[in-house]
Design a protein that fits this description.
- The chain has 218 residues and is mainly beta.
- It has one helix at residues 14-37, and strands at residues 2-6, 48-58, 63-73, 79-99, 102-122, 130-143, 146-153, 158-165, 168-182, 187-198, 206-217.
- It has a single domain (2-38, 66-217), classed as Porin.
- Helix content is 11%, strand content 63%.
- The longest helix has 24 residues, at 14-37.
C-alpha cells in the first residue's frame, strides 16, 4: 500500500468577506473625524498595540470560526514586529492512500493552535486614518493527539469511522496584508487576510480572514 497526504485551499466567499468590511467601514467613517480632532499622529513610532480578533479559517472543505490575539511594537512608524496566538477549532485534513487498485480518501477536521512572530510593514498615507499594511511571520502550528470522526471514501461507498490522529508540531510561514482603521488616537479596528504554508505531513496552504479591535499605548 502506498500513501500520500495533501490539503487544498478553500475559497473566500464574497458575503463572508464584504459584509464585515462594510460594517467596519460604516463604523470607521462615523468615528474617523474624532481621530483628527484630538490632534497628533495616529501612526507613530515607539508605541505598543494590543489587539484581539475573530475570523474564519479556510481549509479543504468549509469555513470555520477562529480567534486569537497579538501584540505589536512600532520600531518606526512603518515597521512593527509582533507576536501572535491563534486558535482554530477545526482545520480540514484529507489523506489519500492506494490499495486493492483503488484510491481511498480520508477526510476529517482537527483543532490547531498557532504561535508565531513576524513583522507588519505599515504604509501610511500622510495622516489619513486608514492605513494598509503587509505582514510576514514564522512560527509553529500544533495539532493535538485526538480521536476524530473521519469520512472514508473508497470509490464505492462513503463511511464514517473513528480515526486516532497523532499530535504534531510543525514550522509554518505565513504572509498577507490588511487595513487598520484608526477611530481615535489609541483605538481602532483591523481587518486582515493571511495564508499559511506549513511543513510536515500536511504541506499545502490554508488561510484565514480576521476582524478585530486594537488599543495603542506607549
Amino acid at each position: 500500500m502506498t500513501a500520500c497526504i495533501r490539503t487544498t485551499v478553500g475559497f473566500f466567499t464574497p458575503r463572508s468577506v464584504l459584509l464585515p468590511l462594510a460594517t467596519l467601514a460604516i463604523s470607521f467613517f462615523g468615528g474617523a473625524p474624532a481621530a483628527h480632532a484630538q490632534g497628533g499622529s495616529v501612526v507613530r513610532s515607539g508605541s505598543y498595540e494590543l489587539g484581539g480578533f475573530l475570523g474564519s479559517s479556510y481549509g479543504i472543505d468549509k469555513a470555520r470560526w477562529m480567534g486569537g490575539a497579538n501584540l505589536t511594537y512600532a520600531v518606526t512608524k512603518y515597521i512593527l514586529p509582533y507576536t501572535e496566538f491563534s486558535y482554530f477549532p477545526g482545520i480540514g485534513r484529507q489523506s489519500t492512500s492506494s490499495g486493492g487498485g483503488r484510491t481511498i480518501k480520508t477526510t476529517y477536521s482537527i483543532p490547531l493552535t498557532d504561535f508565531h512572530g513576524g513583522v507588519h510593514i505599515r504604509m501610511p498615507i500622510r495622516e489619513f486614518p486608514i492605513v494598509p499594511y503587509g505582514v510576514f511571520g514564522v512560527g509553529m502550528i500544533h495539532t493535538p493527539s485526538k480521536t476524530v470522526k473521519a469520512s472514508v471514501d473508497d470509490g464505492q461507498a462513503v463511511r464514517e469511522r473513528d480515526l486516532a490522529a497523532p499530535s504534531a508540531t510543525n514550522l509554518a510561514v505565513n504572509f498577507g496584508g490588511g487595513l487598520r482603521f484608526y477611530l481615535r488616537q489609541r483605538f481602532g479596528f483591523r481587518a486582515e487576510a493571511k495564508v499559511y504554508k506549513p511543513t510536515g505531513d500536511f504541506k499545502d496552504y490554508f488561510g484565514k480572514v480576521e476582524f478585530g479591535v486594537f488599543y495603542q499605548f506607549k
